[in-house]
Specification:
With 175 residues, the protein is mainly alpha-helical. It has helices at 6-10, 14-28, 33-50, 62-88, 108-120, 146-165, and strands at 97-102, 124-130, 135-140. The model has no long low-confidence stretch (mean pLDDT 89).
């Protein structure tokens, strides 16, 4: 039987602990002692309670994850400005389109996070992941070139996600 270290017992999912604690502090809008204490308690308790439901924590390259988070946050700000300009401007400037983004991986976390990033970025919505077809159905509020949109999604989000999780493209994919 494998011996579990003190830190693995206290912090079974360190990333979840950090996210829970940070989320509490952001929701509370305060760094006073009481909120810091509650954040610490939640950060230690919640991951421990969900430990049986999380089979394993994948190996993640955290530096790359932080970089991708910055890219996504920047893209959200820029997309908000573009969407505001489109919505407040003349309606003939809108060119809504549905298109499919082929997936370079069969990795569940990569594909789910890619769909969430697409949906989080204003102006695009992922309508579903089709595992059999190996793609994500996406709706863009306005685009002239769907091929360019697909390449941008793959370059800015999918490829970094695959690097974060150490996933290789599925055979036959040149992404």
């Amino acid at each position: 039987m494998q011996k579990i270290s003190f830190w693995e017992r206290c912090l079974p999912h360190p990333f979840v602990s950090v996210m829970v604690g940070a989320s509490w502090l952001m929701l509370a809008h305060s760094l006073d002692f009481g909120n810091l204490l509650i954040a610490l308690i939640l950060a230690l308790l919640l991951p421990y309670l969900v430990k049986p439901f999380i089979a394993r924590t994948p190996h993640i390259h955290y530096g790359r994850a932080i970089r991708l988070t910055g890219i996504v946050l920047w893209d959200i700000v820029i997309a908000n400005l573009r969407v505001a300009k489109l919505v407040l401007g003349p309606s003939d400037q809108l060119h809504p389109k549905w298109f499919r983004v082929p997936l370079a991986s069969e990795h569940d976390q990569v594909n789910s996070l890619l769909a969430m990033i697409i949906t989080t970025t204003p102006g695009t919505v992922s309508a579903g992941i089709d595992q059999e077809r190996g793609d994500i159905l996406v709706h863009a509020l306005s685009t002239q070139d769907t091929d360019l949109e697909i390449q941008e999604i793959k370059r800015r989000y999918e490829t970094p996600l695959m690097h974060i999780f150490g996933v290789n493209p599925k055979s036959g994919d040149q992404s």
